[in-house]
Give the backbone structure.
Amino acid sequence: MNILERDPSDPKKQKKEGINPPLKLVLELGPLLVFFFANARGEWLAQKFPALAELGGPIFVATGLFMAATALALIASWLLTRTLPIMPLVSGVVVLIFGALTLYLQDDVFIKMKPTIVNTLFGGVLLGGLFFGKSLLGYVFDSAFSLDAEGWRKLTFRWGLFFLFLALVNEVVWRNFSTDAWVTFKVWGIMPITLLFTFSQMPLIMRHSLEEKAKEEQASK
C-alpha cells in the first residue's frame, strides 16, 4: 500500500487520491482556526474544561488543541483518500514536535518558530529540487494544473522563494510583536498573503498550461 501521495509523474496516480477543494480547505484551515479561537478564549475554555487548565495559559491551551486538530486533519485525509499529502504531513510532524516542546518546557518560542522551520524547509526542498532538476511543486498543484516542464520549473522557483519570504516574515512578527498579534497574523495575515501570491501566478500558469496550448492548436486547425 502506498501511504504517501504518489509522484505526479507516476502513471498509477489517480484523481481519486485528491480531496475536493472545499473539504481540503477545511482540513488545512481548521487547525489554524482552532488555534486562533483557543488562544482568544483560552481562559474560558480552561474554566469549561478544567483538564485544559493543566496545560498553562491561553497560548498553551491553544497549542494543545492545535496539535489535536492537526492530528485529526491528517487522520481525516487518510480515511478519505488512504494516502497522506506530503506537505501537510511534514507541517503536521513539525507541529507535533514543536507543540510538545512548547507544552513540556512551557515556552511558547517553540510553537512560534514552527512556521519559520516549516516554510524554510519547504522553500529549501523546492529550490534544492530544482538544483537536481526536479520540479517538486507538482506534488501540490498537479491535480489543479497541467503545465509544461518550463512552467513547473518557474512556478517551483517562485514558490520556493515565497516560502522563504514567509519564514522571514514570521521571524519578524514573533520577535517584535505580542503573542496575540502573532497568532492573529498567523491565522488572518498569512492566508490573504498566500492567496494574493497564488493569484499573481495565474498569468504564468496560463502561458504554460498544456490545456490552453491544446485549445490553441485545435483552434488553429
Remarks:
- The chain has two domains: 18-107, 112-210.
